[in-house]
Design goal:
The protein is mainly beta. 5% of the residues lie in helices and 46% in strands. It is built from 6 helices and 84 strands. The chain has a 9-stranded parallel sheet, covered by helices on one side.
Length: 971
């Protein structure tokens, strides 16, 4: 019986294993690859539940219906911008989903423009996932119709005619992390219950940003960013507009998740003006009766402004010792987020960089101090003798006393230079010592010769003093004892007695009468009790030195008035005897994250170091760095340019604008109006430029044009070369007929306009042509390059060293420079020296296999004559002689201001950027007040438009700059 039971159990187990294997084989997912030229619909039709359809990059023209369950349709790249599905019929959905558990990701759906049709429509679906897609130029972006339990996340719906995202009779769906931008309407909830909306960005939609009808109940709406002029919120039942206050980064960068950000583009929204005294990123008061409804947001978000804490200075350095010259890298380790750094390296040099590198040229032990500041306060740390710069040591010493009765205790003081690392003393009586400053007892009478050997990594030094110590017998009446019966006579000498800071002086006791103790007063608040001390004067001045010598009979004092003269370290005349004027440009002012920006230093006054603050918590000390902005937001950029004469800071507020799903907007970028958009670069005529996503292909050819113009244009006019045009910033256009087309873009702002023409840019072939894979995947090198460049120095005295930086687009492979002085170069980014005064036109020709392009900048480099020839005695300048070079030219007045507009009272800081070394300034602020400061701050108390005038003057004359209607102050 037992054996029969075991057999039955074994058979049952085998059957179970067979069934599981069969089920496993039947349920295995298949990946179907779709190439350009294939049909996605055919792939869908041939698929089974659980299959994955992977679409290679390209443009596909079709309308797709999915009725199967458990299907994934995704792009291979994960990038919607290179996998585009365009509606073959504008009167049908690009994607119509009529199944469950369907996932769509990484695609761009465009062209369903007829009324009621969508980029992606979910009809009677459940548990579907729509993620990381772009929906543009449709009637609706995404439409959830009678669907339940679906998830929409990280999608971007933009430029759709009626709605970005719309829910109709849709329940229990999750809408999170999406962007609805520049649509007719942003997000619309109609007759839909139990949905959760969080982390969405809704802004700049035409009719309204957010709508929820009165028959939509129990929806949860929190942590969204709303920035639209209009919203419609009906009452419904049980809807909520905030969750409980929870620690975590919210959609505008604050430390808590709660309600929503309720903004308006003109800056008058609730969150734009709400008070946040405790700085927790949540308004101190609730937003009641939102848009006239019965509902309130009890935890509305505001732009987070963290509290400043006083910094605590700290730093490290590497290396901290070595031979001269020694390059030391200092690393700021301060806490509390300082915004200002001041280093004193102990050798008369200083720096304002956060993490400077400094070269010590002379041997010595240097004290290093760091001062840091922020809005909350300041902190200082000093490390004494921190940097030790060694040279071959020179042995020297003194002793006290040098004579007396046995037993005689003698204190030896090492006075060697070069920072010895070891000491070897021979006291002449058979004894020795290895400490720096030993005390030795002579037990017997005699005359002793003393020697000292010192060593370090650079070498060794030795000194011997013959007959230096004289010890008499205990029974004798010594000379010292006889002298000790009378008061000593103090006397001193010093070497050197004058020099520049820091000045190290060796003082020598020359007193008679056998003093046994000494007290020195160096005249700068410090003293010493050594017999022959060494002292360093760190500040310029004239110092009186006093010595009091004492023995058992009494004391005597000698005073030498004005004995030591210390002068400030002089500077050799160069352009760095002027404080630099910081300034810069950026290659791109706006774009999507990640945004690569090249910053070009255009500071005057020959700075020798640079510190950039990119506004996103990162920094650089390069002269003209490249930086990548990874997150959406509006960034203020700051450059501090430094030379030996001082430093200057240029701040461009809200300079870089990066868009993207995770935008963190600053308060100023949320409150822009038309009048305030005249900041920074918009005062310059834009420079038009653009790219196209497709340069060739079969008709109909869809090409997306991307505006890459600089100078902050506010309007665009495209001519596609086939008789059609557009005023969108980055439009998509379909070429229906074969041909070669020239494309033209005109970019305009209030300062003027610029036109970029690309001849024969788009090539469209007939429908019958079959393109090879290589012709469909165009690289940048199939386009002729567009040459462009910058120069690090635009003007200065001869010889002038200038580094030219190639900023050409289109992937050039070779470069030819003409510097305008008869020399040229084929390097990509060469450095050139202009030896003679003159004005030079620079030309760059950039070439690749598609052709070449030339950029000419006329009169681009200005070189003035070498500064006056100075004699050796005049090269160390005093203040009265510093009227050379630049001051012989009449100044050219110019200035900046921040901000340009705002409400009264408006505090405006004016920054002088005049050239030609003015020595006085006269400002007229246009409201009846003026100033003679170089960089004044002025308060405009009344609303109005103000013209500002600056007159800059030096010995050669004066120049005036007038900026009409420059400051705009609202009530």
């Amino acid at each position: 019986m037992d054996g029969g039971i075991k057999i039955k159990k074994l058979n049952t187990l085998l059957v179970a294993i067979f069934i599981l294997a069969l089920i496993s084989s039947l349920g295995a997912a298949t990946e179907i690859i779709v190439q350009p030229g294939d049909s996605i619909q055919t792939a869908v039709n041939s698929s089974s539940s659980g299959d994955i359809i992977t679409i290679n990059p390209g443009t596909y023209i079709e309308n797709i219906i999915v009725t199967k369950n458990d299907l994934t349709i995704r792009s291979k790249s994960g990038n919607p911008d290179n996998t585009i599905i365009k509606a073959k019929s504008s009167g049908a959905n690009v994607f119509l989903l009529q199944g469950d558990n369907i996932k769509i990701s990484g695609l761009k759906a465009v062209g369903a423009t007829r009324s009621g049709y969508s980029g992606i429509c979910l009809s009677s679906c459940s548990n579907c996932v729509i993620e990381n897609n772009k929906l543009l130029s449709n009637c609706y972006g995404i439409y959830l119709l009678r669907s339940k339990g679906d998830k929409l996340s990280k999608n971007t719906a933009t430029n759709n005619l009626q709605y970005g995202i719309v829910l109709g009779t849709a329940t229990d769906n999750t809408i999170s992390g999406n962007i609805a931008l520049n649509n007719g309407r942003g997000i619309h909830i109609g007759n839909s219950d139990g949905n959760t909306l969080s982390g969405n960005t809704v802004q700049n939609n035409n009719i309204y940003g957010f709508y929820i009808c009165g028959k939509s109940d129990t929806n949860k709406i929190y942590n969204n960013y709303f920035n639209d002029t209009n919203m419609t919120i009906k009452n419904g039942i049980g809807n909520s507009y905030n969750t409980k206050k929870t620690a975590g980064t919210n959609i505008v960068g604050g430390p808590y998740i709660g309600g929503n950000f309720w903004g308006k583009p003109n800056g008058t929204g609730f969150s734009n003006t709400a008070v946040d005294n405790d700085r927790d990123g949540i308004s101190d008061s609730a937003y009641k009766n939102i848009a006239g409804s019965i509902y309130s947001d009890n935890l509305p978000l505001v732009v987070y402004k963290p509290k400043s804490t006083k910094p605590v200075a700290a730093f490290s350095a590497s290396p901290t010792s070595g031979k001269a010259p020694l390059n030391v890298k200092f690393t700021d380790k301060s806490t509390g987020t300082p915004t200002y750094w001041y280093w004193n390296f102990g050798d008369g040099s200083k720096s304002y960089l956060q993490n400077p590198t400094h070269k010590y040229s002379k041997a010595g032990a240097y004290n290093v101090s760091l001062i840091v500041k922020n809005a909350a306060g300041r902190s200082t740390v000093t490390k004494t003798g921190y940097i030790k710069v060694i040279s071959k040591p020179v042995a020297a010493f003194s002793a006290s006393p040098t004579s007396g009765k046995a037993p005689l205790n003698v204190k030896y003081t090492d006075k060697s230079t070069g920072i010895p690392a070891s000491w070897y003393w021979n006291f002449g009586d058979g004894s020795k010592s290895y400490i720096q400053n030993p005390v030795h007892k002579y037990s017997k009478a005699g005359t002793y010769t003393v020697s000292l050997i010192v060593k370090n990594a650079a070498g060794r030094g030795a000194v011997t003093k013959t007959g230096y110590i004289k010890v008499t017998g205990t029974s004798q009446t010594s000379t010292a004892a006889l002298f000790a019966s009378s008061t000593p006579t103090a006397a001193l000498s010093a070497s050197p007695t004058s020099g520049k800071t820091p000045l190290t002086v060796d003082f020598t006791d020359n007193s008679t009468g056998s003093p046994t103790s000494w007290k020195w007063d160096f005249g700068d608040g410090t003293d010493s009790t050594e017999q022959s001390p060494t002292h360093t004067y760190s500040a310029a001045g004239t110092y009186t030195v006093k010595l009091t010598a004492t023995n058992t009979a009494g004391s005597n004092t000698v005073t030498k008035p004005n004995y030591i003269t210390v002068t400030a370290t002089s500077q050799t005349l160069t352009e760095t005897s002027q404080t630099p004027v910081a300034d810069f440009w950026a290659s791109s002012l706006s774009g999507k994250a990640p945004l690569n920006v090249t910053f070009t230093d255009t500071s005057t006054g020959s700075p020798t170091s640079w510190e950039w603050d990119f506004g996103d918590g990162t920094y650089s000390t390069e002269q003209s760095p490249a930086h990548t902005y990874s997150a959406a937001g509006t960034y203020t950029v700051k450059l501090t340019a430094t030379n030996a004469a001082g430093n200057s800071t240029k701040t461009k507020s809200n300079y870089i604008t990066v868009t993207g799903a995770s935008q963190t907007l600053t308060e100023t970028s949320q409150t822009l109006t038309e009048t305030s958009q005249t900041l920074t670069e918009t005062s310059q005529t834009p420079v038009a430029d653009f790219w196209a996503s497709q340069l060739s292909g079969k008709a109909p050819l869809d090409a997306t044009f991307t505006d890459t113009s600089t100078g902050s244009p506010t309007s665009w006019e495209w001519d596609f070369g086939d008789g059609t045009d557009s005023t969108e910033q980055s439009p998509t256009h379909t070429y229906s007929a074969a041909g070669t087309y020239t494309v033209k873009l005109t970019a305009t702002n209030e300062a003027g306009n610029s036109t970029k023409t690309k001849s024969n840019y788009i090539t469209v072939t007939g429908n019958s042509q079959t393109l090879t894979a290589t012709s469909q995947t165009l690289t940048e090198t199939s386009q002729m390059p567009v040459a462009d460049f910058w120069a690090s120095q635009l003007s200065g005295n001869a010889p002038l060293d200038t580094t030219f930086t190639d900023t050409s687009t289109g992937s050039p492979t070779s470069w030819e420079w003409d510097f305008g002085d008869g020399t040229d170069s084929t390097e990509q980014s060469p450095t050139h020296t202009y030896s003679a005064a003159g004005t030079y036109t620079v030309k760059l020709t950039a070439t690749n296999e598609a052709g070449n392009s030339t950029k000419t900048k006329s009169n681009y480099i200005t070189v003035t004559g070498a500064s006056q020839t100075l004699t050796e005695t005049s090269q160390t300048l005093t203040e009265t002689s510093q009227t050379l070079t630049e001051t012989s030219q009449m100044p050219v007045a110019d200035f900046w201001v921040s901000p340009l507009s705002g409400t009264a009272p408006l505090d405006a800081t004016f920054t002088d950027t005049s050239t030609g070394s003015p020595t006085s300034w006269e400002w007229d602020f246009g409201d009846g007040t003026d100033s003679t400061e170089q960089n004044p701050t002025h308060t405009y108390s009344a609303a109005g438009t103000y013209t500002v005038k600056l007159t800059a003057t030096n010995a050669a004359g004066s120049g005036t700059k007038t900026k009409s209607n420059y400051i705009k102050v609202a009530k």
